[in-house]
Amino acid sequence: MTTFALPAIVQPSVAIQGSDARFPVRRIFCVGRNYADHAREMGNDPDKEPPFFFTKPADAVVDHGATIPFPPETGNLHHEAELVVAIGTGGADIAKENARDHIWGYAPGNDLTRRDLQNDAKATRRPWDMSKGFDNSAVCGAICPVSAVGHPAHARLTASVDGAIRQDGDIADMIWPVDDIIAYLSRFVRLEAGDLVFTGTPAGVGAIMRGQTCTVAIEGLGEATVTLA
Ligand code: MN
User: Fold this and answer.
1) Phi and psi of 208, rounded to 5°?
2) Which residues of 9-48 are buried (b: 16+ CB within 10 A; e: fewer)?
3) What does the mean pLDDT of the chain come to?
4) What is the CATH superfamily name and number for domain 13-228?
5) How far is the CA of 32 from the centre of ligand 1 (A)?
């Protein structure tokens, strides 16, 4: 048995719908520009610039219902409503036809973004880590097991701030559907049980202020709510 020089690190995890057990989080992958309307609102051409990946640390995950400190070093914190895919079986070079065999469940999520830092990073051709992978940046609702919800292909996806709808899309409008994301991502890295994949956001991203509550909802999958202290 390994002896550590410091207290062992707590395994990050997220709630599971209808269970006391928790889903252990290994890695968090995110897809950029996976809805054409959002790519256009950010000034990009979805036909010329296909989706791509970035990551967040596993311990950036936050449960539905949490209150988090307003993130430091930003004056423009944005919500991004997304479908989250939870991987239950690992694999590399997964064929699109087999992608569903690797999915454990689905959840609504909020890819919190320090948009001012992201815009600076784009302008200076620097990495996105500090704009995307900051503390508490991966809000994730309770994971709904495939055994309960199947593989949703169409579902309304919304983000609201203090009850006012800001984003209103449908997961059917992804440029890369979930099966394609898993097949493509698994060419670059081996996926393992415990990985979460945030699958991109539709148009309507915008700021959340101190004291506000942001709710991401996906029809049939529940909500992921976060309050900014
Ligand atoms: Mn996103």
Assistant:
1) -115, 135
2) eeebbbbbbeeeeebebbbbbbbbbbbbebbeebeeebee
3) 97
4) Fumarylacetoacetase-like, C-terminal domain (3.90.850.10)
5) 6
**pLDDT per residue as tens digits for the range 135-159:** 999 999 999 999 999 999 999 999 9
Task: Name the one residue in this structure whose structure tokens are 């995110």.
Answer: 30
What spacing in Å lies between the alpha carbon of 4 and ligand 1's midpoint? 36
- What's the whole-model pTM score? 0.97
Ligand 1 centroid distance, CA of 79 (Å): 9
Q: Residue 159 and residue 108: Cα distance in Å, rounded? A: 10
Helices (H), 60-153: 115-124, 129-132, 146-149
Give me ligand 1 centre to Cα 204, in Å.
Answer: 12
Please give the distance of CA 78 from its chain centroid, rounded to a whole number. 13
Q: What is the pLDDT of residue 10?
A: 95
Task: Identify which of 64, 84, 41 has the alpha carbon closest to the alpha carbon of residue 203.
Answer: 41
